[in-house]
Fold these 2 entries.
Entry 1:
Amino acid sequence: MSNLQSFSDDDLGGAHGPNRVVLLYGGRSSEHAISCVSAAAVLRALDHQRWDVLAVGITPAGQWLLTSADPDQIAPAGVSLPSVQSGEPVVLMPGDDGAHLFKVEEHLSQDLGLVDVVFPLLHGPWGEDGSVQGLLETMHVGFVGSGVLSSAIAMDKAAMKMALSAHGIPVGPYEVVHDGEWRLGPSRVAARLEFALELPVFVKPARAGSSIGISKVNQWHELEQAMELARLHDPKVIVEQSVPGREIECGVLGAPRDQRAKASALAEIVLSPDREFYDFESKYLNDAATLVVPADLPPESAEQIRDIAVRSFEALECEGLARVDFFLADNGSIVVNEVNTMPGFTPTSMYPRMWAEFGVQYSALIDTLLELALNRERGLR
Ligand SMILES: Nc1ncnc2c1ncn2[C@@H]1O[C@H](COP(=O)(O)OP(=O)(O)O)[C@@H](O)[C@H]1O
Ligand SMILES: [Mg+2]
């Protein structure tokens, strides 16, 4: 049964003619390739009668290009890590008319027409972290997903955990290590962490994703190396006590104003025994992880997790979509690991699969997100 049945056509803006969508993909983060794969999948599934799409790819160096909207060019078959290649027309930032957002360098006198909504299908820093959302706000255009503050808080694992605990939402024990403190005295930091946390711990860049830069530390003498790896990605590092247990995820879909967001079916990530944790390789490159949808859980635990997922979404003031990731600890407690405001979005990614389990198909999910974005408030929020 679709959980979207309570959204009426009016809530979602009713039927429109083709609306112009800018699909923004690629980007400067280390999750560039994942974004390209998600973008190709969205282009394949999108109802092109209803949505007139421009594909704007951001190269790893940060250049915005008007690319082909052909999914087979964006993510060619057999290429596991596709990327946006330079050589396409450069997209310029808007002039004084915010509605006519994008111009291409070769045709300065012409803009690309009215843009109704932007889908920033970008993962990680400079995309999912409020920076692009801020740019879109200054352009006064509607966009899919969370706004500036919410995106920024969710991207920063330390800020996120602080905000969630302030709302009474359970998170595991953690410590933050700032750049200056580490540079002044790694041994003092180590002493503080050893006092505050029990082994094993996870050392993570505060603002990254796809497990990039994360290490599991089983002995304190491994800390320094793990810190240096995390610091390659972010000078701000979070060190978390390991929560032994099961990994459960829940999709949340925003609702029109005055309605509560909805929680999807739950999924479990089951790792093969040779994996220490859900790292980049097991996420994207091999079969080390199995995604079980729906997760096999006692109904009361499942309801509790779905409720905490919606409360986390509301606590961070998310919009549109988010995937809330949990640990169901061996001792029975439930803690939130993280909130992703632009989760992986291919049809086989967790977020769409969890909604499909509730009868919401991939293309309907995209329609709903675009409709919500068309109707959201603009301006400072
Ligand atoms: N505190 C923890 N306890 C147990 N496992 C953890 C913990 N933190 C991270 N992990 C493992 O590392 C993976 C990646 O960590 P996560 O915080 O989700 O980073 P990312 O944002 O890169 O996905 C998790 O999916 C989980 O397998
Ligand atoms: Mg994660």
Entry 2:
Amino acid sequence: MIETGVPDVTVGLVRADNPSVMTLDGTNTWIVANGDGSWVIDPGPDDPIHLQAVAAAARRVGVPRGVLLTHDHLDHSAGLESMAALLDGVPIRRHGSDFSDVPLEATFTPGHAADHIVLHFGDDQHRVLFSGDLILGQSSTIVPPGGGTLIAYLESLAKVTAIAPNIILPGHGEPIEPALPAVEAQREHRLKRERDLVAALGDGLYDREALLDRVWSDVEPALRIAAHVTMQTNLEKLDLEGRLPDDFESEGRKSWRHRAT
Ligand SMILES: [Zn+2]
């Protein structure tokens, strides 16, 4: 059980056994319960052992009422239908759903995924936010290129700041508390990369590998491909904002425009 400070609400965690470089220790499946029942957030992989453990934990704290999804990536969503069936056919709520029967508020936060939402509850004193993959514990999330995702991601971080949670319970990693400095650190992390990238381009450094060596020099080899993707996302943002040098090689621009269409 996680101590949230919100009276009469309990939060539990069951972590899926799917650790990897992208999922950290595994996907976090959160359970929220109040006097009316319990809700499962992000069932995780379609793994019977994990889903049974989640169902048992949800029943321990209340009558299961529904399954909520932060975004449709398989490490969060593959077990969605199985989970709902296991809980006697409770409804599924996700981006675009009616949340009027759910005691959590959903806020649209695209950037990591086009359908990403964060879920939150509480009052002015204590506010708890489930961040999915928008903000992770102990890592920064992937923002894939296509359609101005980094611009959307930064706007989504601003929405989280406006919600002003005390604690963030992420889709991977440990609870983040205090929450707001971590959100600000994420924003600053992205903007610092952008400043460094603009400076490197200004120095006439146009080669992708050379840019990566300069701006993402701290990234370990296992994450270099992920850093390539991130750089493409940063370049896309600069292109959309008209901030790329005119003579920057156009082949790269085409590659993300293809993905965006
Ligand atoms: Zn994930």
